[in-house]
Amino acid sequence: MVTDSKPIPHHRGLIVGNYCHDILLHNNLVIAETLGGAASFISTVLDALSLPFHLVSKVGTDFSHAALTTTHPPLVVPSSQTTLFHAHFGSNHPDRILNRVTSCSPITPSDLPTGSRFQFGMAVGVGGEILPETLEKLLDICDTVFVDIQGLIRRFEDDDGRVRHVGLKESGFFHLLPRVSFLKASEDEASCIDLEEVRKWCCVVVTHGKDGCEVFCRDVRFRVDPFEACQVDPTGAGDCFLGGFAAGIVQGMGVFDAALLGNFFGSLGVAQVGPPELDFTLVQMVKEEMHKRKVHDSPDSEKTDDWLVFRKPRDQNQFYTSLVTAKNIIMCHIQENGRNLLSSTKGIEQSNGKTRVVINSVKHEPISSVDSE
């Protein structure tokens, strides 16, 4: 299946990853269903920053968020269901337990556009939909490629779809690392790679949630400060981070500033349920600050060794302060519109339709308990 046989001249980026249905459960009680998938969170960030891109995503005929994805519509596979995740939270398991309930068809090389070249590409699978040959095709047609490691190392238990990880060397993707520009991993996912070896091939960014992130590239290593956040739902935090980070790099910012921008968007993501609502007018001040921080006109791969790209800027505090100011204004807007409210005891209908916070299961069959595990 080919998305478009004609060139796509006006898109700087190519995003590859399936949309999903996400169901959030607290002590096995369904409290929200929302549009999910890394592609949905990243799309929100890149759209807010006015960075044009083409998206390749697959869903089934049961996809319930078509109205929210008209700007970047998915491919509908008649013979498949939309990928569905259950995210379990509760007193007996404070950390999220993630189960893949159904999965859509994988994205194949023939699904990617032909006849076009892109300034940047992003492989952001969540349910096993990224194949080694698909990533290889993405690397062939994009100048700079960002990869979320979750799309490479996630595996799923046969009985309940519980997410687990395999080592990067056993994933089938390891041989492609020399062609990857940036690899993003959570702290847990980073334990599945030989960081000292992988950083020789590509720049690795490890997120630490409320503690910010670390950047590793060859002989360079530094930590980037976090932003305060009132966490409502951690789902998609890393995706929002990657969207902000990639946008910074593509817009010519240094790696340190781009990572700070990633932390900024990650902190906005956890304050809302589902893909964050970002007022474009308010984000304009962020775009203006980004323009001031440009180091290069483009993320030319030949410039990745340039000391300007990896150095810590002397005026980093100024950029951080500007982002804090922008964040405070954006959060006030979010709170006024009720987007940061999630209750396990009251039903809430979000006005923009991205999230439905409900009582009783969205799916009529019983939800399997995980408390005994």
UniProtKB/TrEMBL annotation:
Keyword Ribosomal protein annotated: no
SUPFAM superfamilies given in the database record: Ribokinase-like (SSF53613)
UniProt entry tagged with the keyword Metal-binding: no
Every Carbohydrate kinase PfkB domain range: 175-274
InterPro entries per record: Carboh/pur_kinase_PfkB_CS, PfkB_Carbo_kinase, PfkB_dom, Ribokinase-like
Alphabetic keyword roster: Kinase, Transferase
GO process terms (BP): myo-inositol hexakisphosphate biosynthetic process
GO MF term list: kinase activity
Similarity-based family: Belongs to the carbohydrate kinase PfkB family.
Name of this protein: Carbohydrate kinase PfkB domain-containing protein
Organism: Vicia faba (Broad bean)
